[in-house]
UniProtKB/TrEMBL annotation:
CDD domains: TM4SF9_like_LEL
Gene that this sequence comes from: 106083668
Disulfide bonds: 157-185, 158-174
Family matches, as InterPro entries: Tetraspanin/Peripherin, Tetraspanin_animals, Tetraspanin_EC2_sf
A Pfam family recorded for this sequence: Tetraspanin
Name the UniProt record assigns to this protein: Tetraspanin
Length: 273
């Protein structure tokens, strides 16, 4: 007697796909929570919540950036993690929408960069951002730590076009010597080249380096951060684009995985109705 084969009208939910989405999004969820907590703590430490008017450029405030990144990562990770674990199609749909919106934003930024990179707009924005950091260097510890990291650890540079740009800061302006500023005609310690024998960075190494008659060998970075940033991008442009494309690829892959899981859950539910 021939065996009659029936087509399976329903699909089983893949445990492998379900827990892969759950584990990856839980990691994203926890990471977002840590970043969000760090941003809130930083804002609370400088009493920014009750003094928002004192923040000159909100977009450039490192603590605010951490809060935004942490919130987005937390929301995406939460919807994907809980949605996969609980097999909640509503949360999984929300996760797909959020990731798709993020993809659109990333693609838009990429297109903007390609269109505007030769028109000077990006350079002008970077210049304005660095100028704001220099002017408010002593007013916001987060911005101070950020520009110190840019100058000393990342780009090994000083100022926008060079050390003279620190004249924009009231403490480092050469005329500030009249009011007793010890840092007048100097630069922050992060502009100084690290010496091979130096175990602890000398915080006063930038004093007086822009005064007339100071030795030619000033032991500070002469290259501006704008040019240093351009050179960094030129040197690492291939690596940056590979990283961006891999990030987009994994986001698209997770959207496909999540949509397949969502379809399987819907098919499984319809089996019992």
């Amino acid at each position: 007697m021939p065996v009659r084969k029936y087509r399976n009208e329903t699909r089983e939910v893949s445990c492998c796909m379900k827990y892969l989405i759950f584990v990856c999004n839980t990691a994203l969820w926890m990471t977002g929570l840590v970043i969000l907590a760090a941003g809130i703590w930083a804002w609370n430490e400088k009493d920014a919540f009750s003094n928002l008017n004192k923040i000159t450029l909100l977009v450039l405030d490192p603590a605010f950036v951490l809060i935004c990144i942490g919130s987005v990562a937390f929301l995406i990770g939460f919807t994907g993690s809980v949605g996969a674990l609980r097999e909640n199609t509503c949360l999984l749909g929300t996760f797909i929408i959020l990731v798709c919106v993020l993809l659109v934003v990333e693609v838009c930024f990429g297109i903007m960069y390609l269109v505007l990179k030769d028109k000077g707009w990006i350079k002008d924005q970077a210049t304005e951002g660095l100028r704001a950091f220099i002017i408010h260097y002593r007013e916001d510890p987060d911005q101070q730590n950020l520009i110190d990291w840019i100058q000393e650890d990342w780009l090994q540079c000083c100022g926008i076009e060079g050390p003279k740009d620190w004249d924009s800061n009231n403490y480092f302006n050469c005329s500030s010597s009249a009011i007793g500023s010890r840092e007048a005609c100097g630069v922050p310690f992060s502009c100084c080249r690290r010496q091979t024998h130096e175990l602890i960075k000398n915080k006063q190494c930038g004093y007086d380096v822009r005064k007339e008659g100071y030795p030619v060998d000033r032991h500070i970075y002469e290259r501006g951060c704008l040019r240093a940033g351009e050179e960094y991008l030129e040197m690492h442009i291939v690596s940056i684009w590979i990283y961006i494309m891999l990030t987009i690829f994994w986001q698209i892959l997770f959207v496909i995985f999540t949509q397949n899981l969502r379809s399987d859950i819907n098919a499984q539910k319809s089996k019992w109705h």
